[in-house]
Amino acid sequence: MQANMRQSLKHIKKLKSHIAKFDPQADNVSFVQMVRSQKPPRSLFQSESEPRHHKKQYKNCPYNENEYHMHMTLNITATSQAEPSEISEDTGDLEQWCKKWQFVMSKILNRDLSLTRTSSINTYDEHLTNDTDIKWSDQDLQTLKEQCLQSFAESNGRMAFAILLNRLRNDDHGLELNKFEFFELANLVEHFCDNVEEHNPMDVKSTKLVMIMTQSLYIRKENILDELNSEEKDYFTTTSQDSNANSETVFTYVDSALPKHGKLFLVDRIKHHPLWKSEAFWRHAYSDSLTQELNKFPTLQRWHSREEHMEADRRNKEITFSQLAAITHNMKEFGMQNSTIIDFLESQNLSLDKKLMLKATLGIYDQFSETETEISHEEFTNPTHSCLNYFFLQIRFNFFDIVLSLVSVAYLPNKFSSSPFSYIFHCLCSSNGNHIFFFFPLFLLLLKCGLTACYIQTEIKNIVCVQFDFKKIDANLFH
Fold first, then answer.
1. Which residue has the higher pLDDT, 249 or 357?
2. Which of 312, 348, 313 is nearest to 327 (CA)?
């Protein structure tokens, strides 16, 4: 032990001497330049078989400088057969396809797009990466676009397209598209989905990026109304009629606050694709996302404490719930049937209350099962059980209803000021029926607004015409 300590002290003294000699203000530019000159970075226009000295080759090349750059760009071939899990942005072939897709996307969107890793693109030859000086003909652009579409057959090409599409998040132009951009991107995404569906196993990593962006990019209704299909026109016509018919009600305020009001998102144009109807794809996507999140934390071993195991178990359950919430929201957004989403949730190892919460949030919970309603009268009236827990777990309501009720109180018209609960009931009964239990979450909201418990009881009896014994409810609900 003493020998080891003496040896460690020697190492510490040696480190101190090196640190004392270190000059933080030293100029390391010459050293960096020397290292870079020994092994210059590979150009994005350079294939595996191409020599590194472009200028020597250019002197003997029959093309002029402009034609040479275009010739090198159009003749790059991707040879990598790496699986999606092995793809990284530093892969040479992926960088090449990113550069190609950058050309195509920049022309479609009529703006300059930067790649994710700009440091890997700054090569030693500025002429090889300065795309703005290159004059592209329509034929050359069409040839490059066809090559990019063919790249969808490979994982690198699909990931490159997903990366460039995702770069629109950081674009100063925003997420709104014009008519040409909208239809061009919709066409590219459909080609992308065709190849993902044919690929085995499915390339879910790049597909998830594309899936997110299709829910972000949109076009204004007035800019595309003449190009919509019958289903999309019916959707906008119905929305417009509802807004006009309820111009003096709360629906006007809710309709104007909804994120899709007056907008057509890219997902609305491509969600009919068979890829989004495949249960295998959604299960694969959920498994990939869950594994990716769980791997961010170290695996516990036997020697870890009981508290650490409990904390890890709690964290894993939260991760599982959040990933299920995300994937089911996407399933709903991309047109999956409610029955399929319910079957997917029921197949997961999730507690009953969490399943009910997800179903209620998605608005896909229609009927109670026998298992979910097996609560005895004694358990219901037992004061040790929280009344609120029972109602929030078993009562039929969703997120939209709660938002609607909040806006109802905030923007209450004068003609309903004498009976606010009647107005809220009028707004909700069309979608939720007159199920008496649904209104208990709204009781708290009305109490916060200054209404008395007696007034609420009177309104309930007058509207629903049901004699209900309020003594059976936890008294804390009205205090």
1. 357
2. 348
Q: Alpha carbon 226 to chain centroid distance? A: 29
Rank 56-65, 86-95, 146-155, 327-336 by mean pLDDT and report only the highest: 327-336
Confirm whether 311 is domain-assigned: yes
Final residue of a structural domain among 249, 270, 291: 270
The whole-model pTM stands at 0.55
**Res. 284 pLDDT band, cuts 50 70 90:** very high
Please say whether the beta carbons of 106 and 113 come within 8 A. Answer: yes
Establish if 186 belongs to a structural domain. Answer: yes
Cβ atoms 113, 86 nearer than 8 A: no
Same domain, 286 and 313: yes
pLDDT band, very low/low/confident/very high, at 33 (cuts 50, 70, 90): low
Q: H or E element: which one contains 220?
A: strand 218-220
Is residue 22 a part of any domain in this protein?
no
In whole angstroms, give the CA distance from residue 461 to residue 455. Answer: 10
The answer to whether residues 159 and 235 belong to one domain is yes
Q: Is 335 left (phi over 0), alpha (psi -120 to 50) or beta?
A: left
Looking at per-residue pLDDT, the higher value among 140 and 186 belongs to: 186
Q: Which domain holds residue 415?
A: 381-478
* Residues 355, 285 share a domain: yes
The structural domain count of the chain equals 3
Question: What integer is the mean pLDDT of 114-140?
Answer: 51
SS3 of residue 366 by DSSP: coil
Question: Measured between alpha carbons, how far is 320 from 293 in angstroms, rounded to an integer?
Answer: 9
Q: Decide if 338 is inside a domain.
A: yes
E-assigned strand segments in 283-371: none
**b/e for 333-356, b at 16 or more Cβ within 10 A?**
bbebeeeebbebbeebebeeebbb
Question: Is the preceding omega at residue 41 within 30 degrees of 0, hence cis?
Answer: no
Give, in order, the Cα–Cα distances in Å from 458 to each of 131, 324, 435, 436, 449: 74, 41, 17, 14, 17
Same domain, 345 and 391: no
